[in-house]
Specification:
With 255 residues, the chain is α+β, with helices and mostly antiparallel strands. It has 8 helices and 15 strands. The strands form 3 sheets. It has an 8-stranded mixed beta sheet with strand order 4-3-5-6-7-8-9-10, with helices on both faces. A hairpin with a 4-residue loop joins strand 8 and strand 9. The chain is globular, with a radius of gyration of 17 Å.
Length: 255
């Protein structure tokens, strides 16, 4: 049985979905933020409705969202929100976009919801309760070697900018198959055994908080590229089926 936290998070994701899809079918108006990334009315409307849905149930909780920043609460709980992960896909009518909602208690991520409405994929997990795709339990793969693995990656230019391209290149060269899906979707693939590892050189916490819980609860492992635990300040990511994790990290540690 879902906890109240999860029930409210799923309700918030569905409320956001209605807004996101309503704008998607029309002319999407785009503005540029100060960091030169795009934002739409759908991003802002979706984050607003997520916050309001959660506030009704948990008025003392805090929030950290991509569009509206930080709102401190009076409890140890903080919700981390990316209303539309892959806004650039959304703008160009590429259906690989999704809503990310996570819950952190203190410094511990305890819940994640990732909803990709046009892919018909709703993934969710709570710490200690397993991971689910459209209500069915999921588990990571049992692949043991890069030569057998499908490895996904974010934008390759970021590895160059962060000085980690040699490790990324060697891993991609050794892997059985690679794809640059980017954003949340490649973590869906790892959590459900359709891919085996993900590497990203530049991320924000709202990009990866929800999928961190989901991949872990599916039996995988998630750290930054240096192998450190995920925090609000994490800026890179490696997610694997767990078996491959130390091997993937070694590509970067030895590069």
């Amino acid at each position: 049985m879902a906890s109240q936290f999860l029930s409210v998070a799923l309700e918030a994701a569905k409320n956001a979905e209605e807004i996101i899809i309503s704008y998607y079918t029309g002319d999407i108006k785009v503005e540029m933020k100060a960091d030169e990334t795009p934002v739409t009315l759908a991003d802002r409307g979706a984050e607003h409705v997520i916050r309001e849905t959660i506030k009704q149930a948990f008025p003392d909780h805090g929030f950290l969202g991509e569009e509206y920043g930080t709102q401190e609460g009076t409890s140890p709980y903080m919700w981390i929100i990316d209303p539309i992960d892959a806004t650039k896909n959304y703008i160009r009518k590429i259906p690989i976009f999704g809503t990310q909602i996570a819950l952190m208690k203190g410094d511990e991520l305890i819940l994640g919801v990732s909803n990709a409405p046009l892919l018909n994929e709703l993934l969710y997990a709570e710490a200690g309760s397993g991971a689910f795709l459209n209500g069915e339990p999921i588990q990571v793969s049992d692949v043991t070697q890069p030569e057998e693995a499908m490895v996904c990656h974010g934008g390759l230019k970021w590895f160059t900018e962060k000085g980690t391209f040699p490790g990324a290149y060697n891993l991609i060269n050794d892997a059985a198959r690679t794809r640059g899906f980017g954003d949340f979707y490649m973590y869906h693939l790892v959590a459900s055994a359709r891919a085996d590892a993900v590497i990203e050189a530049a991320i924000s916490v709202w990009d990866i908080a929800a999928i961190t819980v989901i991949v872990r609860e599916a039996g995988g492992q998630v750290t930054d590229i240096q192998g450190q635990p995920i925090t609000k300040e994490t800026a890179s990511l490696v997610a694997t089926n767990g078996i491959l994790h130390s091997t993937v990290l070694n590509y970067f540690n030895n590069a």
